[in-house]
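Ticket #4471: structure output looks truncated?

Reporter: J.K.
Steps to reproduce: submitted the chain below (216 residues) through the standard prediction queue, then opened the result file.
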Amino acid sequence: MPPSVIETENLRKVYRDVVAVDSLTLSVEQGEVFGFLGPNGAGKTTTVKMLLGLVRPSGGRASLLGYKPGEPRAMAQVGFLPEHFHYHPWLTANDFLDFHGRLYGIPDSERRQRIPTLLERVGLGGRGGSRLSEFSKGMTQRIGLAQALLSQPAVVFLDEPTSGLDPLGRRQVRDLIRDLRGEGVTVFLNSHLLSEVESTCDRVAIMRRGRVVGLG
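Returned output as attached by the reporter:
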């Protein structure tokens, strides 16, 4: 594991005449819960997409687990919960996680063990046979969390992970993030909820108009 799990230097993204991310330089260490704060349009989600190799930077550089973003050797160790997602409504929770487990190359025996444990961990114990079309917004958020943790990743990117959750659900997510930190997992938490970030993060960066205006 490299000293800095996530590292950027003068990272930049421009869409025509709009500068979405401007000269972003930061580093995130192993086992750290790092909060990425800012209003809508600040460049948070664009930054996450560049770190995951989903968007090509216009300039600067970035590394994830010592590799270039998007490299299979890095992505095999990454979990991701996007803010907006649409899962296959006809699948059951078990089938959905089994499908993603096969994409990760997780052996059959391990998938059979991990899936019920993960469902219990995110508060969906006993709902493995339910179709995703029957899930509420909060339950869909929980199954997304389970998917992000399925591969036992070294780094987890969470984009607004408490969106749609009630107060109990938000507390469970906070507890889960603390557990991940205790296991040495790095968590990159993208949020605009100050209370959530304050209660879970070791450090934060505050974005405004594509630039970091506070870090510490």
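Triage note (M.O.): checked the attachment and the full token line is present. The chain has a mean pLDDT of 90.
Status: closed, working as intended.
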